[in-house]
Write the structure tokens for this entry.
Amino acid sequence: MILIVGLGNPGADYKNTRHNVGFIAADRLSDRYNFTWQHKTKFKADIAMGDCELGKVILCKPSTFMNLSGEAVRAILSFYNIPLEKMIVIHDDLDLPLAKIKYKIAGGAGGHNGLKSLDRLIGANYHRIRIGIDRPEDSRYDVSDYVLGKFLASEEKLILNKIETIADSLKLLIDGDIEKFKASILT
């Protein structure tokens, strides 16, 4: 069983914001595989699950706010007895140019509160797919306002295309062909 976590903040105010790119990716995957979202109070998360070309998959969108994401993920990992190496987290990254994708296993949180929560509660040794959201061009612009702002239509199109690239390549990652996965997401 594979757990794919999209990081974001719950609620209509945060829908389609830069900081919610992980939720956007999880939603695209659920659409692709016809998985249905259900809110699970005991997990503090929305989950969608099923069998697909990737195997048995659980998609997760924590319903806590970003800085408490680890609570939901820890509960799901424990309940389903999923080892950390079978978890993939998709999240935004301010330090990457818009729509640039990077992959790594483990590492630091880089100031990302969702990753800090995960690392603190479950450890850091999991797969991370980072999607660049860039930084505001004007350094005087508040970073919090920027990450909680909506994508421009042109930006959203780029992001959605990159999420499709990730979805098309996930099987490589799950099958352990990390180098081919990394090469495929860099196109």
About this structure: The helical segments are 21-32, 69-80, 113-122, 143-147, 153-174, 178-185. Residues 2-185 form a domain with the Rossmann fold fold (CATH 3.40.50.1470). The chain has one domain: 2-185. DSSP finds six helices and seven strands in the chain.
